[in-house]
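In response to reviewer comment 3 from the previous cycle, which asked for concrete evidence that the modeling workflow produces usable outputs, we include below a single protein chain processed end to end. The sequence was submitted unchanged, and the resulting structure tokens are shown without manual editing.
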Amino acid sequence: MSQRKSQGEDAPPEAHGHAIVIGGSMAGLFNARVLSDHFERVTIVERDSFPEGPGFRKGVPQSRHLHAFLTRGRQIAERFFPGLKEELVSHGAEPMDMSEDGNWLTPAGMAPRFRSEISLLTMSRYLLEWAVRGRVASLPGVGFLGRTEVTGLLPATGGTSVAGVKVRSRDHGDGADPEQPLYADLIVDASGRNSRAPRWLEALGHEPPEETVVNAHPGYATRVFKRPEDPSRDWKSMFVQISPPEHQRGAVMFPIEGGRWICSLIGMGGDHPPTDEEGFMRFAGSLRSPVLYEAIRDAKPVSPIHGYRDVENKKLHYEKLPRQPHNFLVTGDAACAFNPVYGQGMTTAALGAELLEGLLRGRSADDDFVGLSRGFQKKLAKVNAGPWLLSTGEDLRVRGTEGGTAGLSTRLTHGYMDRVLALSLRDLGVRRTFLEVFAMLKPPTAMFGPDIALKVLRGR
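The workflow returned the following structure tokens.
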């Protein structure tokens, strides 16, 4: 997959010349799919080499852990890649109703189980990324440059635009291979949390973006188990939700391909789950419900225990730059990254690609991209605002959270949402709305609609 396809074959009508995507993970793949409709060539530049099948990449350490591809993100992916769901199911992905098929212990108690028609498709991140990468690789004009590092941006004449990137192969040792220019009409940085875009912009004379960090000091430990046969088991997944500040431990367990469970233990406020055998099981046994511990106690482990840290909420305010370089966009975790416990990352990346699709629609090959960067970053900030509010708002409940405090409005919101959650355990309409918000099918403001607000007030 490191070989370029023939350039310009079956190029879309009225296409621009060349687009570059930095990063070959989910955000990069979604954006490459969108760009392939508008450019003769799209090149995905990635530091790693790509595995032939579903497998681990060093540049995606989070891929070892449980991932939730929420309903809204899956809908976008299915539109981008028709038949993707059936392909994933054929490789062992598990369809699941978010309410009916899972035990979900909320801070208010065990959630009711009912047919919600809000579907999930659970699988390993390895399988999902491999399937999407295969779809992107089959697109005309799309190519991959694996084991290639972007070292900087190339300025256009006049300095107001970006003309391309500087790249270096990683196949010949550090510094052994000289930098090479790679020119393009549009560059999209989707290189993740550790994006170097602020430093690249500074090198071109631009101000780096402001940064906001809200850190509840989360940590994860994940292990994969062979699912034991148990005809009496009436659930597929399990979610023991954290309930800070009293209970800062939680866990999620989903079925994945190969008849396996993937179990991620979660600890907030620096109370991280251990990665040794005894400590992992002791942490699982300390959760608010014993059901998950009892399920994995007799299950056969089929992977090591992997830990993961440094996953704070981080937002870079590219939308506020006083001087926005043309032809250069920043998206996905490179622009706004969330605490993964809320499962919003991949779906938010898909929403960002959908935003780019709308902004490119109707542009002819004669149009330039002046103003696109500023418009994209401002609209992307609005797309990210809802997930950011949910993630940081909940993290502000955790003792020791850095980067923010729960002011009066946040405390009032916490109190209101606590009552909504309690109400949702006995009112299936409220529970369905909650699940729709969680699945990113509705905005968080749906929880404040008049029907729910009146029920909450009456409940008081």
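The chain is about 30% helix and 20% strand. We consider this sufficient to address the reviewer's concern, and the full set will be provided in the supplementary archive.
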